[in-house]
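tool_call predict_complex ligand=octanoyl-coenzyme A
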Amino acid sequence: MAQEYTLELPEFQHLSYQVESGAAIVTIKRPQALNALSQDLMAEIAEVAGVIIQDPEVQVVIFTGEGKAFVAGADIAELSEIKDAFAARESAIFGQAVMGEISSLPVPTIAAINGYALGGGLELALACDLRVASTKAKLGLPEVGLGLIPGYGGTQRLPRLIGRGRALDLIFTGRHVSAEEALSLGIVNRVAEDALAAAKELAAAIRKNAPLALALAKESVTRGEGLELAQALEVEADLFGYAATTQDMREGTRAFLEKRAPEFKGE
Ligand code: CO8
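tool_result ok
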């Protein structure tokens, strides 16, 4: 069921925001340019991240695109107008910060890749926790063909996800890979005919679990990424300790012992 809003939403021009059964669905809507990320659209993505954080109904977020693309990259018309290295660097830093807002959302995020996810579009998907691709999707980092390099996190997040050699194959060739190849490379978690429907199913499976535990599990994985194993395990132990103090932990363990479904409150 779609939520009735008490939260005041900004007027978005290039995306829509809707909450269905605890899942926020953010649909990028610039189909005339295959949802290319203009600066205005990037600002709206940053804004929607702020909305998500404030919306108490949201337990999972799904990003998707309208029409035949998820997002076909940064807006090439705007890129062609960039005058100098300073301006280009600023644009990359702004874009990286927007992707950072997405990747640091406390709730699980899913990219429902309904079509082309190229350049900045793949980088948006990589900023999400999970990726579900439609059988029609094409993914790639074609920036070198434009005389550029990925600048919204692609040279960093893709190698961390799939390893240096596989990432550089995609970055050097700029080739588009199919959903099936993306699955075998480990870029996407699932492939389905209808990416959004499959992402909603995945969101429903995630939402059955304790919300604070989900947030703490995500935090543990994120904080551990840049650390030595011993330090990372300390982070895990600290967050485990915190999880064990929650009402949801009492409820989850009691429900198991009483052979019933738990009712988590996120407390
Ligand atoms: N930017 C602007 N407009 C675009 C983009 C884009 N990335 N992609 C498509 N469009 C526009 C087309 O120009 C076209 O507009 P019009 O109808 O006015 O001519 C419309 O969308 C439809 O596109 P096509 O006719 O090309 O559709 P096809 O089905 O023939 O082809 C493709 C689809 C293969 C996806 C093709 O459109 C394509 O190759 N697009 C560009 C993909 C690309 O190179 N993306 C990477 C961009 S660079 C990038 O993302 C860098 C990110 C980091 C930046 C950091 C610093 C700011």
